[in-house]
Amino acid sequence: MVISAPSGGGKTVVRSGLLKLNKKFAFSVTCTTRPRRPGEVDGKDYFFVTVEQFQRLRKDGKLLEWAKVHGNYYGTPVKSVMAVLQKGRIPVMTIDVKGARSVKKLFPAAVTVFLLPPDLKTLVQRLRGRGEAPENVAVRLRTARSELKVASTFDYLVINDSLPEAVREVAAIAELETRRTARNLDKVESFGSQLRKKKI
Amino acid sequence: MVISAPSGGGKTVVRSGLLKLNKKFAFSVTCTTRPRRPGEVDGKDYFFVTVEQFQRLRKDGKLLEWAKVHGNYYGTPVKSVMAVLQKGRIPVMTIDVKGARSVKKLFPAAVTVFLLPPDLKTLVQRLRGRGEAPENVAVRLRTARSELKVASTFDYLVINDSLPEAVREVAAIAELETRRTARNLDKVESFGSQLRKKKI
Lengths: 200, 200
Description:
The structure is a homodimer. Chain A is an alpha/beta fold.
């Protein structure tokens, strides 16, 4: 499950909501070179690494995707995702728009969700509300322009108006995606095999 | 919403369940040359037509899809579907596997669901339970073999074990499909336009 949004779109809070809602969802930790914000825990919220460490991970092919966003590097360690999948849980990744597209290309089975604030006013309020400096708000809004252009390549669009509602919708998408025929070919095969064996 | 299943798979009862569950679903009536079964109402369950009338509709391009199944013709009048769409409701079509694929080809926006009984034993019981003669049961099981082969081309697979559960799942699929980005490009465009207009 890949959740993406313009900066301030609420991907982090939606992810937290999902994890609280159902134990089948698990956080796949991203690594980043951006400075830690107050309250963030290393290894839990992010793996905070230096630019040097990041480049090493990238060169060694340890990252599923990576991107430079607002001057900082972000990357998804392959290990984090595999660890979650091996436990039979659904890895929830919150990554930027470019990263989301890379993951979808590598893993077409990934489900990509684009979170959109109900309107621009709300997005600006959220960015200011989390204490971004005016020049940072401007940078993020400019980035949002180009992010919006590729939103159409995502599988689902969820309007993040009410947080509980957005969380409920993303969870329902994950649930229903398990009913996709492409994910259930074993069941079709098993029924077909019963039919072939039967003398009619 | 196109619901398909092997004969005896329960497409008719699932459709009835959907229509009872929510008024947004509406029945798009199929026409058929097969004899009316006890309790079936012309113009409600099917439009019962002669082979001659059917061929006329077909030649005049009035059918969205048509197929010959077990010696009888079945077809979806374009008019039935359009009437439902124009009311802003979701047309629910229960058609055979071949017809479902034709509709999907013509309307990629159609959502196709393949209903599968939990196992072969249940399918045989259901066919016998509705009073099919043993030779008809055999014919339907043979048809099911080839139908299963194309099940993988459907969007969703729903195991029809418990009827209320299957109905709930198909309704949830319809609900979540409205969140597909491809069906919400207007919302993406509207937000993008707000961003472009804003001086940053």
